[in-house]
Amino acid sequence: MLQKPRGTRDFLPDEMERRRLIERRMREAARRWGYREVCTPDFEHLELFTMKSGEGIIQEMYVFEDKGGRQMTLRPEVTAAVLRMYVNEGKVLPKPIRWCYFADCFRYERPQKGRYRQFWQFGVELIGADTASADAEAIMLADDTLRSTGVTFDLHVGHLAPMKHILSDLAPGDQRAIMACLDKHDQEGLTAALAGRNLTHLTEPLAALSECRTVPEVFEIAGDVPERARIEETFALLDSLNIDYRPDFGIARGLDYYTGMVFEAFAKNLGAENQILGGGTYRLAHLFGGDDVASCGFAIGFDRVMVSIGNFELAHEPVVGVVCTPDARARALEVARAFREAGVRAEADLMQRGMGAQLSHAAKTADFAVVLGKREVEAGTVTLKDLHSGEQKERSLEDAIAEVVRHGAC
Questions:
Q1: For residue 116, what pLDDT is reported?
Q2: Is residue 323 a known part of a binding site?
Q3: What is the tens place of the pLDDT at every residue in 148-181?
Q4: CB 103, CB 304: distance < 8 Å
Q5: Contact indicator for 245, 143 with CB cutoff of 8 Å
Q6: Is 258 among the annotated ligand-binding positions?
Q7: Cα gap 7→20, rounded to integer Å
Q8: Which of 51, 61, 240, 345 is the most exposed place for a label (fewest CB within 10 A)?
């Protein structure tokens, strides 16, 4: 028996309905802020991602050569693809551009709870606004979107400028190595990286920066960094809207293209693998042949959100099973269509079962049975049976539909 590929999943109807419900909530949250959905190809030229993240990312990707000899890859994330689309299609659009997406991504990594080889991201990109207000909007939208799902989370907000200011005398390669350790919260690796470069004097300020819980504390440690006014304005805007967040200037983010404000969110019930959102300000478009436009955005790990939420009861919508004698089949299809046109899910018998077997099957899958025999066809009526109470009554089709619809509204 063939099995699904490792790191992928099959979703049965109940789970798909839960996922679609949460998707709709996230899309609706973004819509209210003026973000419109875009879609990019499932596969892109490999260079799109290596230009951004380096050749080392290839081992984590599904890379293949197409029939024209071009190096292609299934997308491992969506931000680069959206900025490529901006360069190709959107440079002349009025700014700021507010786009959102929901897409599946692919990474070749070790599967574990909440981490799969095929996974889904919901994300937002705000392109062309280089202000504290834009930074604050991205954070507030991230908070609003996560709250719409029902997940419980902690939101951390920081800025790279103080950390980069402390590391400003270092060579770019040394900065990246140290920030990579900070991003992974790898204290042992950080200690080794600093000691190996004779930079142990930075241990204390970096540790203190990570422990800061107010903006003034940050500047006591890092000094008067050039971006101070922007940082103070961004945090003041968040405070004015009573956003529940924790200042965290130890956030490094593992990607070189982040330029300033950064933020992350962590589900409260997922253990070690609990990050469900990451984002910040960045510049990417110039790498793909576009202008050096400021951008800000975030991506939500949809699968981890669903794991955190867990199973929940779906709102029940009544189901009608249409039961008929052989000579009433044509009328049964008309009746089923009338229920569907009224927004009611209706299922007709396809197995040519007898009336008793049809009723027995309907009792397993439906809330009501609509029974059609010779009498009902001749009278233009239906017999509506409540499969939970057993109560049944012959009535007009319109009255039967109205009763089922009322039942669904209760």
A1: 93
A2: no
A3: 999 999 999 999 999 988 888 888 888 888 887 8
A4: no
A5: yes
A6: yes
A7: 21
A8: 240
